[in-house]
Design brief:
Blueprint lengths: L1 H12 L12 E4 L6 E3 L2 H11 L6 H15 L14 H5 L5 H13 L8 H9 L5 E3 L3 H10 L4 E5 L6 H7 L7 E4 H4 L6 H11 L6 E5 L2 H4 L8 E3 L12 H5 L3
Parallel strand pairs: 1-4, 1-6, 4-5, 6-7
Antiparallel strand pairs: 2-3
Helix pairs in contact: 2-3, 2-6, 5-6
Length: 249
């Protein structure tokens, strides 16, 4: 496991693995796609519609979910097209709670669901723990890091406060600091956001392992952080987070 994880670190940086054989004293985690995943689309749409007083039959829910994900869902694939009237809030979505909500409710509104209030109900699912699923290896990994006294930061491109969600999911006690793009005015892959996290944990960048799932997370390499990218996993499936522990002293 260690050899595999170190190889993946080397691939992120494009230099030999031996460069990363140095002590790791802190871990930076991305949130979405790394510690947790948003709920399955069919469930997302069904429960949001129910909040609007509409019971969807399974076929309609499936078709609507497909269309809404294609239009652009927070936590889903990037939309193929951003309507011109949403271009400004889309560009600022991870820097402002207002822009984040306006961008994603606006995209949902481009889908004719016939359900008044559905775009806001869909967005509100994102703000509750019920709209998220922890990977099964998230808590065991965070718990062991805490037992080893390894501080943890969450570094996320996000336009709303993740702390209440993490509180309800039961993982806040394992997080030493939160570095959220909308609060500090910088987004990954800007190296400044990673250096901010390292300073908050009082470690040098080369002592902090960044764990994520995207090219934005790989931006930590430019800040000097060894970086582990894990392939996307479906909600509820193990995510390979135990590899983090194999990279610690």
């Amino acid at each position: 496991m260690r050899a595999e994880a170190e190889h993946r670190l080397g691939m992120v940086h494009g230099v030999p693995d031996a460069t990363f054989r140095r002590p790791i004293h802190a871990v930076l985690f991305d949130f979405h796609g790394t510690l947790a995943q948003v709920e399955e689309p069919h469930r997302w749409v069904t429960l949001a519609a129910a909040a609007c007083g509409v019971e969807l039959d399974p076929l309609r829910a499936t078709a609507l979910a497909d269309n809404l994900v294609a239009a652009g869902r927070a936590g889903g694939p990037l939309p193929n097209r951003i309507p011109p009237h949403l271009a400004e809030v889309w560009a600022e979505r991870d820097l402002s709670p207002y822009a984040h909500r306006e961008a994603y409710t606006g995209l949902a509104a481009t889908v004719d669901s016939g359900i008044p209030g559905l775009p806001d109900a869909l967005y509100d699912r994102l703000l509750t723990a019920d709209g998220w699923v922890l990977y099964p290896d998230t808590v065991p990994t965070l718990r062991e890091l805490a037992e080893r006294e390894v501080p943890v930061a969450v570094v996320s491109n996000v336009g709303f406060d993740l702390r209440p969600v993490a509180d309800a999911l039961g993982i806040s006690k394992y997080i030493s600091t939160w570095v959220l793009s909308y609060e500090i005015g910088r987004c990954k892959p800007d190296r400044a956001i990673f250096r901010y996290a390292c300073a908050a944990l009082d470690v040098e960048p080369e002592e902090a392992l960044m764990v994520g799932d995207s090219n934005a997370d790989a931006g930590a390499a430019a800040a000097g952080c060894p970086t582990l990218l894990l392939p996307a996993s479906a909600p509820g499936k193990p995510h390979g987070l135990r590899a983090v522990l194999d990279l610690l002293p």
